[in-house]
Amino acid sequence: MSLVEIRGLSKSFRKGDETISPLVDVDLDIEQGDFVSLMGPSGTGKSTLLNLIAGIDRPIAGTIKVAGTEVTSKSRGQLADWRAANLGYIFQTHNLIPVLTAYENVELPALLLPLSRSDRHKRVLTALEAVNLLDRANHYPRQLSGGQEQRVGIARAIVANPTIVVADEPTGSLDAETSEQIQVLLGRLNHELGMTMLLVTHDPNVASIAGRKLRLDRGRIIELPKSDSIRKIGAAG
Fold it and tell me: Of 232, 151, 157, whose CA–CA distance to 187 is shortest?
């Protein structure tokens, strides 16, 4: 059984008199430890697929199973609990809370888990260490660079040891040097910690860090040849 099993997934939206179908009868398997990139122009449904996997949105047809749990059959309340324990979401804009420190921002998802205070503390420190930001734990977002803020967002996404991490254009708002550093970090989390990742991007250069590359084309997913992956990138600074 694959870690993520998607079968017959379809999603449509109404826009005026027009029906837009970004996903049409999509099948996809993601294995434990995979690093998958999903490419396609803006507006093709890449983020829609992430939101469906996360249970933020619902399909009009099809099923999504993550580690054997059928996400599409859960209620909103059940989905909130499931997301807290199983899914890490990295956004294009880090969405940090300005009045909380880096430590407190990372701790937020862990507050939803049945953890003791000491176990939660260990999780937060481990996540900050994984993104090389232990020395910035007590800094507020305004005291951090854009790249550091994104790394806090990544630490927040991994603090619960999620089953899968989904990343929606995580380098889209960063300069070239900082983007490269974030790509290195994501690759290290996958290779060294074995985290399963699905990365959405419109940038072929960013996509090439993944072991599997997919393209969303007219509502359907096309797998690109493995020979077209994987770009080796340098160590993070």
Answer: 232
